Amino acid sequence: MNDNLIFPHERVDDLQLQGLKLIQNPSGFCFGVDAVLLADYASKTIKKNVHVLDLCTGSGIIPILLSAKTQAEKIIGVEIQKTVAQMASRSVKLNGLENKISIYCDDLKNAAEHFGRSSFQYITCNPPYKKLGSGILNQADETTIARHEILCSLDDIIRVSSIILKPLGKLCLIHRPDRLVDIITAMKHYGIEPKRLRFVHPYPYKTASMILIEGTRQGKPQLFLDPPLYIYEKPGIYSQEIHAIYGREELQL
């Protein structure tokens, strides 16, 4: 391991997937199960040799997971926070993935200008979930930026995606169920047809806490509802599908 890539306040997590590792800052925003679920859901329809863009890439967890789960030719992550983007770049270098993954520090609203129109076959995004309300927030805080729509909105993400996706290219998001109407409305408005939808439940007897949705630019209207995904079978026992997604028998989230 190259210790020069890891700062004293950081830790290195073993992703338990093809020897991949991720640098994280424990005092900042660390990835959760939502990033793992998004990478797995997207990997089902990412074709060989395509170019993938991950918006709001954060630590770079989704590009790094997709590098192992797909045969994409190139994966690019865009992150607006400089220190977070630099950390993601160091994780890419730590894994020797510089030829496959690139991290850019930029506002995603500049993506069309930076990459050009119709330049990607697939876009993923694990966006800030919370609308910006009237509460007092530290708008410079890394965790606050990751959780709230301070620097970008859901509309920004879908609008920009509609510009830089190739025709029939796909956008895949994970979000909260209470934003589903907003997501579908924005997708339809910007010419992205919702095609796959999956509800994620903490338990079989609980209401959904997350949704996975994939839309196709200029796609034909037809939405397929995938079977629900349950995180736990019962308290303390993860579902078999979660074990399979993480790729190991014993699992600690």
UniProtKB/TrEMBL annotation:
Molecular-function annotations in GO = methyltransferase activity
Ranges for domain Methyltransferase small come to 45-132
Which domain of life does the UniProt lineage start with? Bacteria
Q: Which CDD domains match?
A: AdoMet_MTases (cd02440)
Pfam families, A to Z: MTS
Q: What is this protein called?
A: tRNA1(Val) (Adenine(37)-N6)-methyltransferase
Report the source organism.
Answer: Ructibacterium gallinarum
